């Protein structure tokens, strides 16, 4: 009959075998056949949940059998305690003095923590990277010729050696962690580039002479601006030029130039010292000459004024008594003239006896000259 199953026997109804050997019906297997499987052999979700519940009950003592339940419950508590301890250990971390911790959550930046005992979610939810923000690191450039030889603006070559001290910026630790992969190499590259820029815009003499400090300051500034531009979290502490000299092949010629400059500077100092000595002396001499000239001027003015006053007095007397004044002036003049003359008296009584008087004129002239000189000395004194 059409309702019978060819494989089954007995009283079969239209919905399947009455003996339930195959447990088949027109809609698929019944609940008794292939238990826990869904269509096409997929696991039954309800069965899986039920099995999980049964296992948990057995683990914590919820199953049948008193002793087995108590032992399973103790083991479960131990497992839970160990798990909680592992979670706590994975969540607690220590940040030492001078350090900072950068916490990431699933790889993204979450927060920056300071020193002390700190907490985070366990791995792999949150991780922490500890960075020393107080350590001062040092990079030296110029130990090899490829690093130290640089070209100046005046087309000379200088051999430089310098050190750069840097540290992580405490206010920007996350940028250092995320943006810098090899900090030492980065600092060295930026330092060399900045120094080449400064040297390329400077002459040789200031670099190896008095301008070394300015060169270091300019390179320091360029480095810090570069690190800030790329958000590196690096702060420059200092840059010191260890050595700045011409290459070894031409250093002798440069030493001669330096010696000549030192000689020129010494000569300039000696000239300045001589000028400081001679100028005050010249000024003193000039002041003495000026005072002497002023004294002579005052003397000449006084003499002239006296002569003018005397002439005015004589003129006043002459105006009042011309004859008397003229006679007095004549007599005074004759007195002055005759007072300086040699007086010779000749006796005329022997006239006519044929004798000619002899006058030693040369001797008389010498006597008169000596007397005149003596009188002049007396008047000058």
From TrEMBL:
Q: Which residues cross the membrane?
A: 74-96
Query: What subcellular locations does the record give?
Result: Membrane
Gly residues composition-biased segments: 7-19, 29-39
Q: What is its main location?
A: membrane
Q: Which CDD domains does the record match to this protein?
A: SPFH_HflK (cd03404)
Name any one Pfam family assigned in the record: Band_7
Q: Name one GO biological process term.
A: proteolysis
Topologically, how does it sit relative to the membrane? Single-pass membrane protein
Q: Where is this region: Disordered?
A: 1-44, 357-381
Q: Cite the Gene3D superfamilies for this sequence.
A: Band 7 domain
Q: Does the keyword Hydrolase apply?
A: yes
Span of the signal peptide: none
Q: Does the keyword 4Fe-4S apply?
A: no
Start and end residues of each Band domain? 90-258
Role of this protein: HflC and HflK could encode or regulate a protease.
Q: How does it assemble?
A: HflC and HflK may interact to form a multimeric complex.
Q: Which family does it belong to?
A: Belongs to the band 7/mec-2 family. HflK subfamily.
Q: What is this protein called?
A: Protein HflK
Name its species.
Marinicauda pacifica
Name the lineage.
Answer: Bacteria, Pseudomonadati, Pseudomonadota, Alphaproteobacteria, Maricaulales
């Amino acid at each position: 009959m059409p309702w019978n199953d060819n494989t089954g026997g007995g009283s079969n109804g239209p919905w399947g075998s009455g003996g339930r050997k195959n447990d088949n019906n027109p809609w698929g297997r019944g609940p008794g056949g292939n238990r826990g499987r869904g269509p096409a052999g997929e696991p039954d979700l309800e069965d899986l949940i039920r099995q999980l519940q049964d296992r948990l009950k057995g683990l914590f003592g919820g199953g049948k059998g008193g002793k087995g339940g108590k032992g399973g419950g103790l083991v479960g508590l131990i497992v839970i305690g160990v798990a909680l301890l592992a979670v706590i250990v994975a969540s607690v971390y220590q940040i030492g003095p001078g350090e900072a911790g950068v916490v990431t959550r699933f790889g993204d930046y979450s927060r920056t923590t300071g020193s002390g005992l700190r907490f985070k979610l366990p791995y792999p939810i949150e991780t922490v990277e500890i960075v020393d923000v107080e350590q001062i690191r040092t990079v030296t450039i110029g130990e090899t010729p490829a690093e130290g030889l640089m070209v100046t603006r005046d087309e000379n070559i200088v051999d430089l050696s310098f050190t750069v001290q840097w540290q992580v910026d405490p206010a920007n630790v996350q940028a250092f962690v995320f943006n810098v992969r090899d900090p030492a190499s980065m600092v060295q590259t930026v330092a060399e580039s900045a120094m080449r820029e400064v040297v390329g815009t400077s002459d040789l003499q200031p670099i190896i002479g008095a301008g070394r400090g300015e060169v270091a300051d300019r390179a320091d500034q360029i480095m810090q601006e570069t690190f800030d531009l790329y958000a590196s979290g690096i702060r420059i502490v200092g840059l010191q030029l260890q050595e700045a000299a011409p290459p070894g092949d031409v250093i002798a010629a440069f030493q001669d130039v330096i010696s000549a400059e030192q000689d020129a500077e010494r000569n300039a100092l000696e000239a300045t010292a001589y000028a400081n000595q001679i100028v005050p002396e010249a000024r003193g001499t000039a002041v003495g000459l000026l005072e002497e000239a002023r004294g002579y001027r005052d003397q000449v003015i006084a003499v002239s004024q006296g002569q003018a006053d005397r002439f005015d007095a004589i003129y006043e007397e002459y105006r009042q008594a011309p004859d008397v004044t003229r006679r007095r002036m004549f007599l005074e003049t004759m007195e002055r003239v005759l007072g300086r003359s040699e007086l010779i008296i000749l006796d005329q009584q022997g006239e006519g006896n044929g004798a000619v008087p002899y006058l030693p004129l040369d001797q008389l002239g010498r006597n008169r000259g000596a007397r005149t000189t003596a009188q002049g000395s007396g008047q000058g004194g």
